[in-house]
From TrEMBL:
<protein>
    <submittedName>
        <fullName>EAL domain-containing protein</fullName>
    </submittedName>
</protein>
<feature type="region of interest" description="Disordered">
    <location>
        <begin position="265"/>
        <end position="295"/>
    </location>
</feature>
<dbReference type="InterPro" id="IPR001633">
    <property type="entry name" value="EAL_dom"/>
</dbReference>
<dbReference type="InterPro" id="IPR035919">
    <property type="entry name" value="EAL_sf"/>
</dbReference>
<dbReference type="Pfam" id="PF00563">
    <property type="entry name" value="EAL"/>
</dbReference>
<dbReference type="InterPro" id="IPR029030">
    <property type="entry name" value="Caspase-like_dom_sf"/>
</dbReference>
<dbReference type="InterPro" id="IPR050706">
    <property type="entry name" value="Cyclic-di-GMP_PDE-like"/>
</dbReference>
<feature type="domain" description="EAL">
    <location>
        <begin position="460"/>
        <end position="739"/>
    </location>
</feature>
Length: 749
């Protein structure tokens, strides 16, 4: 909501120059009590009622105020009774809309009853009866009531200012010691507060000011000392100004979402401003909708830097295993007193790994309380905070669970500013514990970013772009090896290499694809998928060009490279295919793009295809094959979205069967069916030869023999068998290997 262009012309009437504004209401409830309650043993105040009147005067000021007379309700002195105030606030909360604004101000005393758990307090009204609260605890204006029944219910932007002692108790009101990470729970995104002091501290009045100290500086801010270049003062600017005044004890400010943009005071609109507002608008600026993590992005980046790149982080001995190589770095990164991986099992607490200062016995009461929540909410809440009256706090992040046993990460007294990150912190820590951030920090950091993406959806633009750059580096760090596709024959001379497939690897000694890194792209969407495929294709073609030039045999074998369905729908990816082929001076007919069966052929979110998906994609592939002169294959048949329709209807030059089919009880029946589909076009006379079928992932332990595969009419196999491995260089089959393969095809041992 914006109130920046409102000009007050008459009392009770608002004129908006130059544009129409969504219907909204701005309400304020102001409370000031000098002498409160029956037998409340607190000293009388001098300026609390005057403070409330001064705030009212500012909000209704003819030149700079942004509220109307009828929308500001004030309760002062004897008229400040808890029942009337609660009734009014509840009415405003229930009768609110998303564009409405509610400001609640209180100046006076706060009371913490002796029988309470010290996590709630009462704002002292004129009729408060402390003795009656034990029997009827709702007979008063409780901070928990404001939080739960007013601000959590209010549909728009709400703001609270407490100029009283014990104001900071509002932060913990209704938490009951352990809460699910967010201080404000459901209303965190639309509620802001400015509190005169922390829990246990006292607010002060000042005779020179003639006001409470906090309110004095509030009035200074609203009168223009906190104004921006246009003379406007938002709640966020006001709170920041007050925090900079060196007040002791320091106030507490919590400014969320609408706090920086909701204007409380502004200059009058001049004729020049009215003319400029009435003139045609320029195209303006574009910015994405705000992400829920917008206010956390700098903290997230700082924490990532401390974990993955800080030069001062502690070194770890190479012999450490399990979580031992992580807990000390996490302790350092979060400024915690100590960190441990702890297993909870019923009443038992077992420390798996810990930093030196972790004292299980000293922390036992907190750990026992944490154990109950960790077991109860192990899949429902990513983390929770447990605190005690002595000010000790532990952050518990469940990592693994089996039945009633939970392995959790425990951080003792981490930096309060980092705890304010809430749930994103727990998500990041759990992802860090799942990674090898010492051995492979690049992939580990990307996994942490992907965990945030998965948990919260869209990230702030700067985090999204940071993740994109990080993913480019991760994919760029991969290199290509080439695995031969072997053509089977009964005789040694007929056994040969038909083609090579380019496979990505992260390390010299890895034999498996880095599937975790490759599949991260799907959590981020098309841009990441297309960039991944473009980088890998370019790397594959250039690496293959160099390897082919150094090969000892004559002629260039065909090359196949994996590609996602979404990449084939991108003109940018296809332009990269053409460029890479031209740069390597490679014949396009040499290249086959393998389309994974694990990708759905369907429109993306918000996308519309005018034809049935298979028909649309068939037309796309036919056009690409004609224009680029490349060929296509179906990859991983037998998993994911595998279907006979896709295999039969798309213009494919070959079909690759996933290794999972080999281990199926009906493997032979499935392979026979694939072979029949591959021959179908040739049997009808629509093609000269059947499409080749290639069995992927074949190894010496496969339950189906090469003879059985060959007898089905499938004459191509790819995998690790007979000493065959993938390599960055290209090698022909040696004579003994050819003979061994031929003998297996003949059924000989």
């Amino acid at each position: 909501m914006s109130v920046a262009l409102i000009s007050r012309c008459d009392r009770g009437r608002i004129i908006v120059w130059g544009f129409r504004m969504a219907s909204s209401r701005r309400r304020a409830v102001l409370i000031g009590v000098n002498q409160g309650g029956h037998d409340v043993h607190l000293p009388a105040l001098r300026y609390a009622e005057r403070d409330a009147q001064a705030i009212r005067g500012m909000l209704l000021d003819e030149t700079i105020g942004t509220f109307d007379d009828g929308d500001v309700t004030m309760y002062i002195g004897a008229g400040a009774n808890w029942h009337g105030i609660k009734t009014k606030l509840r009415e405003l909360a229930l009768d609110s809309g998303p564009s409405d604004v509610l400001l609640v101000y209180f100046a006076g005393h706060a009371l913490v009853p002796e029988w309470s758990n010290q996590l709630d307090a009462y704002l002292v009204t004129a009729d408060l009866d402390p003795d009656g609260l034990r029997r009827e605890p709702d007979n008063g204006l409780r901070m928990a009531f404001l939080k739960r029944d007013v601000f959590e219910t209010f549909a728009g932007a709400s703001f609270l200012i407490l100029d009283c002692c014990q104001a900071g108790i509002y932060l913990d009101a209704d938490l009951r010691h352990a809460e699910a990470m967010q201080t404000y729970r459901t209303q965190v995104d639309r509620h802001s507060a400015l509190l005169a002091c922390r829990s246990g501290s006292a607010a002060r009045e000042n005779e020179e000011y003639g006001h409470g100290v906090l309110t004095h500086h509030l009035l200074r801010a609203l009168r223009g000392e906190a104004a921006d270049d246009s003379g406007r003062v938002s709640f966020g600017q006001m709170a920041a100004f007050v925090a900079e005044q060196g007040i002791e004890p320091p106030p507490v400010q919590l400014v969320h979402m609408w706090g920086p943009t909701t204007v409380l005071a502004q200059p009058p609109v001049s004729r020049h401003d009215r003319q400029s507002l009435s003139s045609p608008a320029n195209p303006g600026n574009a910015r994405p909708c705000k992400s829920p993590l917008e206010d956390q992005s700098s903290s997230i980046l700082q924490l990532l830097s401390r974990v993955f790149r800080s030069e001062t982080r502690p070194a770890q001995p190479p012999q450490q295993t399990g979580y031992a190589d992580r807990v000390e770095i996490m302790r350092y990164a979060l400024g915690a007193e100590s960190v441990a991986a702890v297993e909870f099992s019923g009443a038992a607490i077992r420390v798996v790994n810990a930093t030196p200062r972790f004292d299980k016995e000293e922390l036992r009461p907190l750990l026992e309380r944490s154990s109950a929540d960790a077991i109860k909410y192990r899949t429902g809440i990513p983390g929770h905070i447990v605190s005690n009256d002595a000010g000790r706090r532990i952050l518990c992040v469940p990592l693994l669970h089996e039945d009633d046993r939970v392995l959790a990460l425990i951080l003792v007294d981490p930096a309060p500013a980092l705890l304010d990150m809430g749930e994103p912190l727990a998500v990041m820590l759990r992802a860090m514990c799942d990674t090898n951030f010492l051995g492979d920090p690049l992939q580990a950091e990307m996994r942490v970013m992907t965990a945030l993406r998965t948990a919260f959806g869209r990230l702030p633009l700067n985090l999204y772009e940071y993740a994109f750059s990080l993913y480019q580096k991760l994919v760029g760090s991969m290199f290509m090896v080439f695995q031969p596709v072997v053509e089977l024959a009964l005789r040694r001379t007929g056994v040969s290499i038909q083609s090579f497939e380019a496979l990505a690897r992260r390390g010299d000694h890895e034999t498996r694809a880095p599937l975790g890194a490759l599949q991260m792209a799907y959590a981020w969407g098309d841009r990441f998928i297309i960039e991944r495929d473009a980088l890998l294709l370019t790397k594959a073609i250039h690496s293959y060009d160099a390897a082919d030039a150094a090969a000892s045999y004559q002629g260039t074998k065909p090359l196949s490279v994996n590609v996602a369905v979404r990449s084939l729908l991108s003109d940018a990816y296809l332009a990269q295919v053409s460029k890479a082929l031209i740069d390597a001076d490679m014949n396009p007919r040499t290249l086959t793009l393998e389309i994974s069966e694990q990708d759905a052929i369907e429109p993306g979110p918000g996308e519309r295809w005018l034809q049935e998906p298979l028909a649309y994609f068939h037309r796309r592939l036919t056009t690409l094959a004609r224009d680029l002169r490349i060929t296509f294959a179906v990859d991983d048949f037998g998993v994911g979205y595998a279907s006979l329709a896709r295999m039969a209807e798309l213009p494919l030059t070959q079909i690759k069967v996933d290794r999972a089919v080999l281990h199926h009880p009906l493997a032979m029946e499935e392979l026979a069916l694939v072979a029949r589909v591959a021959r179908h076009a040739a049997d009808l006379g629509h093609a000269h030869t059947p499409r080749p079928v290639i069995v992927e992932g074949y190894d010496d332990a496969a339950p189906v023999s090469l003879k059985q595969i060959y007898d089905l009419g499938i004459h191509h196999v790819q995998g690790f068998f007979c000493g065959n491995t993938a390599s960055a260089s290209l090698h022909d089959l040696e004579e003994p290997i050819r003979e061994q393969i031929a003998s297996l095809v003949r059924g000989e041992k």
